[in-house]
């Protein structure tokens, strides 16, 4: 890459210098074309005496030749390099990673996923306070104290999704307390008020 750039610049300098040396005018050809265009546009203008040359020195032949008067000296090729005797530089070792190598290339930051809709332009509504512009994770009322003493909406989310009746709750509590009380006792005989006998773990 460096060798190609060097040769291109050397050729350009030589071509530009030789072409301008054969040019007869004092002003560069591209500048003359622009002056002719402005001359055609200035037909309706009123001239006034300036007293100096209206063409800047940077647009003349002498300045152009000064730009390309230098040269890039030739550089010896690789076949003329001196041998250091230390051998060629080895390539770095390839470390094999665990797992199957990925075939999909790494996504760029400007890549667009065609199967995913953009969220740009959407308005976010908070599920906690119902205000636009933020969600419940960044809601300012989330950390504010509740004067009513009720739990916030996210703490009561399970109760709202799965309502529990009072009767079912009491039956579950009585059932658990009964088995917790009788689990550590032996079986004894009891007599009901009507005189019937039975066996139970009490």
Automatic annotation (TrEMBL):
<keyword id="KW-0479">Metal-binding</keyword>
<dbReference type="GO" id="GO:0003676">
    <property type="term" value="F:nucleic acid binding"/>
</dbReference>
<feature type="region of interest" description="Disordered">
    <location>
        <begin position="80"/>
        <end position="119"/>
    </location>
</feature>
<dbReference type="GO" id="GO:0008270">
    <property type="term" value="F:zinc ion binding"/>
</dbReference>
<keyword id="KW-0863">Zinc-finger</keyword>
<dbReference type="InterPro" id="IPR036875">
    <property type="entry name" value="Znf_CCHC_sf"/>
</dbReference>
<keyword id="KW-0862">Zinc</keyword>
<feature type="compositionally biased region" description="Basic residues">
    <location>
        <begin position="97"/>
        <end position="106"/>
    </location>
</feature>
<dbReference type="InterPro" id="IPR001878">
    <property type="entry name" value="Znf_CCHC"/>
</dbReference>
<protein>
    <recommendedName>
        <fullName>CCHC-type domain-containing protein</fullName>
    </recommendedName>
</protein>
<feature type="region of interest" description="Disordered">
    <location>
        <begin position="137"/>
        <end position="163"/>
    </location>
</feature>
<feature type="domain" description="CCHC-type">
    <location>
        <begin position="126"/>
        <end position="141"/>
    </location>
</feature>
């Amino acid at each position: 890459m460096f060798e190609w750039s060097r040769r291109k610049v050397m050729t350009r300098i030589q071509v530009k210098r030789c072409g301008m040396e054969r040019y007869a005018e004092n002003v560069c050809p591209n500048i003359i074309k622009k002056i002719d265009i402005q001359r055609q546009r200035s037909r309706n203008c009123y001239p006034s005496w300036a007293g100096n040359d209206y063409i800047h020195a940077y647009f003349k032949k002498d300045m152009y030749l000064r730009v390309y008067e230098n040269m890039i000296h030739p550089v010896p090729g690789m076949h003329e390099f001196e041998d250091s005797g230390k051998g060629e530089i080895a390539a770095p070792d390839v470390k094999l990673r665990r797992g199957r190598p990925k075939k999909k290339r790494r996504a760029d930051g400007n890549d667009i996923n065609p199967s995913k809709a953009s969220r740009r332009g959407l308005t976010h509504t908070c599920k906690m306070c119902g205000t636009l512009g933020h969600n419940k994770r960044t809601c300012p009322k989330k950390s504010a104290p509740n004067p009513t003493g009720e739990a916030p909406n996210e703490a009561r989310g399970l109760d709202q999704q799965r309502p529990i009746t009072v009767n079912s709750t009491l039956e579950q509590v009585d059932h658990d307390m009964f088995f917790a009380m009788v689990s550590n006792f032996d079986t004894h005989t009891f007599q009901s008020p009507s005189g019937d006998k039975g066996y139970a773990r009490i």
